[in-house]
Predict the 3D structure of the following.
Amino acid sequence: MRRRDILTLFGAALGTWPLAVRAQQPRIPVVGLLGLGTPERNGAPLAAWRKALGEAGFVEGRTLNVEYRWAGTDPSCLPALAADLERSCSTCCAARLISRSASAL
């Protein structure tokens, strides 16, 4: 093989190497959070959940994306919201938070 051929192959390999590295980066997981009530009514459980995520090494928006769906006070909306989460999330883990006002239903 001639010197020019070797340099051409080496240059082509270096040119495609960044593309291969970029393609192998893992996707950020998406967690679907399904709940009764509103975010305002579930402030304390949400804060505790975010704190636990942080302690486990997850940072919302950086190492983990969260999709929220709230049913308000109408539990009959939960199946449709769960289906929406299933369609929109690639990695989906649904949790159910019940506010004190919604748990009286």
User: Anything to note?
Assistant: The mean pLDDT is 74. Residues 30-103 form one domain.
